[in-house]
Amino acid sequence: MMRQQRITEGVLLLTVFIWGVNTPLMKIGLGYLSPLLYNALRLLLASIFAWVILFYSGTNKPIKGCDIPSILAVGLLGFCCSQLLLMIGLPHTTAGNASIMNALLPLTVILMNRIFKKETISFFVIVGMLVSLVGIICVVLGSDKNISLDSNHVMGAALILISQFGVGYYTIFSRDLLERYSAHQIIAYVVTLSAIVFSMVAMPEVSLVSWGDVPIKAWISILFSGLFALLLANVAWIWCVGKLGSTRASLFQNLVPIFAIIGAWILLGEVLTWLQWLGMILVFNGLYLARTNGKENFLIRLLEHLACAKP
């Protein structure tokens, strides 16, 4: 059991590492293409390869009629709408606001699990989530990302927060589908539905792009983001959610900005501040706290030591 958990957590770490590194790599492609068109291209690429992988995996099954509404809800209401809201919200808020809203995914998963009575949540999971959230705030404050309460920026942040509920829905309810279908098949339908929607929305922008001027590095960005960040990472994500549960898996999402700043440090030469290092320690400790239910945790030991210390 412990070995299986460690394998699953290792796959999760690799998944969020891919998502983290994907952030600075996406900046390269977004320097030449609009967010909508960029997402449409990477989704189309992901959907094509998703069906190829599904075919060779031998796990494709006929979809039962009773499961069609669930697949449509997970694919459109969960995955696709969250991507659209994120694309709409990002230009209308600050990078700092966006990072904090994205870090609220574990909270949205906890709330939705509470509402739909899908999973039981332990005290230490909640504490670990809060510690990780404080860590993300430290990472944001230690960077050049601004946090703004301006009304225009708040509206964009609200859209990103709503998008996190979409990701939460996708994360929680895709687990139900895993009882009957493989992760490959679920993601094939999810990315295909999203690719169709994004392609229709981005269609007017196709004629506005001088495709001959798009450099090879932008296409490499699309290739990595489509094949690894969208396709393979989401297949792994769904599989891990089925093994660990949506709440515990969602806590690993807070490692995405950590790997993102490390990736920016390596790829773009950005400097890490002491507050960012503190934030990274808190995020990892919060994750460990939730994983072990407080056993042998640095923060718990420190608090116990302070409580027992003589005045």
Automatic annotation (TrEMBL):
It is found in: Cell membrane. The chain crosses the membrane at residues 12-30, 36-56, 68-90, 96-116, 123-142, 154-174, 186-204, 216-239, 251-268, 274-291. Residues 11-140, 155-290 form the EamA domain. InterPro entries: AA-Vitamin_Transporters, EamA_dom, EmrE-like. Its main location: membrane. This is Permease of the drug/metabolite transporter (DMT) superfamily. Pfam families: EamA.
